[in-house]
Write a structure and sequence with these properties.
The chain is α/β, with parallel strands linked by helices. The chain has a single domain, classed as P-loop containing nucleotide triphosphate hydrolases (Rossmann fold). The chain is built from eight helices and eight strands; from the N terminus they run H-E-H-E-E-E-H-E-H-E-H-H-H-E-H-E. The longest helix is centred in the C-terminal third of the chain and has 25 residues. One of its GO terms (molecular function) is GTP binding.
Length: 330
């Protein structure tokens, strides 16, 4: 693969600055410093009244977030998926991601608020096998600390096979790197650019048939069986796509979704399915640990990252180049 043949990246610096949210330093101002502090406090109050950048999540620990990382070959639309979901915006121009970007949207599930930490990264040539490789080659990326990985490939005819082979290799490396806690890791495969897929009308009609009533589905099944000899032969593209779906769903046992970031098609459903899978994996991991003799705090939903209740969902923390105030009901 072209992507896997690239050399290991080197970093001359890092834009991300981390800070302990619990660290509090009290300094007693005096004179001009005290006056400047009062003016800053007044400005902060005005920003809060106007819906400014001060947010409810600034006092939260990073462990309170559901950490999601998108991985995929260059140009598959990772950034577009995130920005369409977070900001409901789409940029027609393609700008390769050059550095790490982190987004902090808020979602509501079952009358509970959850904070997401969605990370968009440049294309990585490989997934680090251990903490040392992560520190030397992908410092501050947080690759091995994620709760979930969304593996994105391109559904367009020209790129479907090559971009899927990339995430297939990436999945194998994730399973090897995180073998010790793989039961807590969620993997989801997403095919983007559904709008560029050949025979799109047939795919959409198939989705409509799935949502039809039972008697209509039965009629369709009987008709198809009677006319089996007249069924159309699948094209090479359709065969490739069907093989991918079977591999992901039956062998990998991962959630699979096809979407269009350009038209905001099925993006909310994608993140809803992802959260459903994360919660199910957390409950299963808690049950396995309890069965092995280790008690887990049930109050936190078997390891699901803490939901922050009683918070204003109209705000969301932002970092340099990152998300603003967003709240989604899933």
């Amino acid at each position: 693969m072209l992507y896997m043949q690239q050399g290991r990246p080197t970093f001359s610096g890092e834009d991300v600055v981390t800070m302990d949210p619990k660290a509090v330093i009290k300094v007693e101002p005096s004179g001009e410093a005290k006056q400047e502090k009062e003016e800053e406090e007044e400005e902060e109050v005005e920003e809060e009244e106007d819906g400014g950048s001060e947010t409810c999540t600034d006092s939260m620990e990073l462990d309170d977030f559901v950490k999601i990382i998108l991985l995929g070959a260059p140009g598959v639309g990772k950034t577009s998926i995130i920005q369409q979901f977070v900001w409901t915006s789409f940029d027609k121009e393609y700008y390769p991601t050059q550095r790490k970007h982190t987004y902090y949207p808020t979602i509501i599930r079952n009358e509970t608020y959850y904070g997401l930490k969605i990370t968009d990264l440049p294309c990585i040539p490989y997934f680090p096998i251990d903490s040392y490789m992560e520190w030397t080659d992908f410092r501050f990326y947080g690759l091995r600390q994620a709760t979930a990985y969304i593996l994105v490939f391109d559904l367009s005819k020209a790129n479907i096979d090559s971009t899927f082979q990339y995430i297939k290799s990436m999945r194998d490396q994730i399973l090897e790197s995180r073998a010790k806690d793989i039961d807590k890791v969620t993997l989801m495969v997403v095919g983007n650019k559904l709008d560029l897929m050949p025979n799109l009308d047939q795919v959409l009609n198939k989705d409509l048939h799935k949502s039809s009533s039972n008697h209509q589905s039965l009629f369709t099944t009987v008709t198809s069986s009677l006319n089996g000899s007249q069924q159309r032969v699948l094209t090479p593209y359709e065969t490739c796509r069907q093989n991918i779906i079977n591999l992901v769903k039956k062998h990998w046992r991962c959630p699979y979704m096809e979407c269009s970031a350009k038209y905001n098609y099925k993006l909310n459903l994608t993140f809803k399915d992802l959260m459903d899978t994360i919660e199910a994996n957390c409950r299963r991991a808690a049950a396995n640990k309890e069965a092995a003799g280790g008690a887990r705090d049930r109050r936190r939903g078997g390891g699901l990252l803490t939901a922050f209740q009683g918070r204003n969902c109209d705000t969301g923390r932002s970092t340099e180049g990152d998300s603003g105030r967003n709240c989604h009901i899933l």
